[in-house]
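Hey,

Quick one before I head out. I ran the complex with magnesium ion overnight. Inputs first:
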Amino acid sequence: MSASRDPAAPGASRIAVLPSAVADQIAAGEVVERPASVVKELIENALDAGATSIDVDVEDGGRQRMRVSDDGTGMGRDDAMLALSRHATSKIQVAADLVGVASFGFRGEALPAICSVSQLEIETASADGAGTRVRAAGGTIQDTREAARRRGTTVSVAHLFYNAPARLKFMRGARSEWRAIMDAVTSVALTRRDVRLTLTHDGKNVLTLPPASSLRARLGALWGGRYAERFLDVDDVRGATRVSGLVERPADVGTAGRRVYVSVNGRAVRDTGIVRAAEAAYKSTIPAGVRPSLYLDVEVAADAVDVNVHPAKAEVRFRDRWPMERVVEDAVRRALGTLDAGAAIGRPAFPFSAPPRDEPPAVDLETLRQTGVPMDEGLFQQSDSRTVDESDSRTVGQPDRDTAEDVPIPPLLQLRRTYLMFEGDGGVVLIDQHSAHERVLYERFMGALTRGEAPAQRLLFPITLHLGPAEAEAFEENRALFEQLGFEIEGFGGHTLIVSSVPMPHPRFDAERCLRETLDALTGDRFAAAAQRHERLAATIACKAAIKAGDALSPAEMRALFADLSRTTLPAHDVHGRSTVVQLSWDELERRFGRQ
Ligand SMILES: Nc1ncnc2c1ncn2[C@@H]1O[C@H](COP(=O)(O)OP(=O)(O)OP(=O)(O)O)[C@@H](O)[C@H]1O
Ligand SMILES: [Mg+2]
């Protein structure tokens, strides 16, 4: 330490302006974290220059060399040199330009930052001028000369961090750096599908992506058509917010590695809020703990988002985050809720795709009689001699009803006592009766557990259950929840239970069997977190209580099931994520009949 900066020396100045080379290296630390950051910045510059084709070539995971070539506007000689100075940018001029900036770059930082910690070469030519080659190292231009090349720019970066030993130490192995580069290229490929991209590693071509007409096509080009078929289309607009993309079918979640890509106004970003909102839409279709793959583009008004909040531009800040997240969640839920009998069919205009959200009022038997439901064939017929006590049935909060003035019900046909079939707008539609009823009951039971509106049916003859020790323990642990669901149960010394009230999902409901099977499924579930236990119990009872494949349904029962299903929030999937509904599109039928 020099004498003049000795803190002990009285009156001496202790603050000094850093030499610019040091300042540049410090700034570089924020922008250039690893080879992949270089690739990202260079590709973004190419895109900003209007490139339609970009070739990325790296050696040794980017540790030796990275080269990005484009067919963009290129630069004249003066600009090519100026581009390496800090705060030199062609993209904004005054601070106000930052609001709603549409280009990737805006700081004039990337090239000088990269240059300060590497050996860099720019070869560039604009449409009219001769080509230029600039060589620089450690932030200093070494020579500039003419070079013949077609319009566009090639930037080569060699020996990253060669002059910054502290940074060099943090560089990972070639494989790990290569993986990060692939990830950076992939997220550009997903957000800018109009651009042709190639990626070469150690002389081997790894990726060749032609321009793609859709996200699904890009996904197919990246990971194969089979992979692309796992996804459902998302596309919703609300106000100035648009959410589009692809989300994994619930049934496929967890069966392949998880990938999540989010872009905001065309910039790939990390945004846990958006991801969480999308995941919330899956609630109840997939087990807690497994997480879906997501590819989401969020577009908001340009002035509703601040892109200048993160040194590597990996995050953005929303002026109004919460409403945007709501749109994301609703859009994803709607995508999950539509029929998904093959990715080829478009969004069907079918009541399931936009169920009314309000809760159906509880309807008692008397009201139903007055509205003319044929009780002798209805869902409310008391066919189980044990579950009759009509005097008390006013309290039955039976939302099942056939008076669905809000849901148009088409003619329905039961096939193999398993499926309901009807004519939808987009084609022939089949509903799996068990899965559908399971979804209806699950949502009703979750309502009972969270809002405490339990439908209950008093039994004329209470059921006595004798349990094994494990089942008895499972019951004791879930006792409060059972009661909330509408079971009235007394423990009767040790392992005997007396059940005097049950929720009544349908007349064939076998309360005894349902309870036994549920308790059996719950044994060993002791360590589940409380929130999951709610869902687990509701799902288990729904599964055990639902009508089964093989149960013959009356026309009124079919209509009631249809109306109830269309009122659920996620009608197209059961609680295990399997489809409840399958559609054979008119197109497909016409193809099969040779009409097309
Ligand atoms: N591939 C390219 N083709 C044409 N011009 C380029 C290219 N790369 C860089 N430039 C020019 O060099 C300038 C500096 O690039 P640099 O990446 O350092 O800054 P920026 O893109 O303006 O802002 P940011 O630091 O936010 O990326 C750009 O503004 C642009 O004019
Ligand atoms: Mg840039």
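The radius of gyration is 32 Å.

Talk tomorrow,
K.
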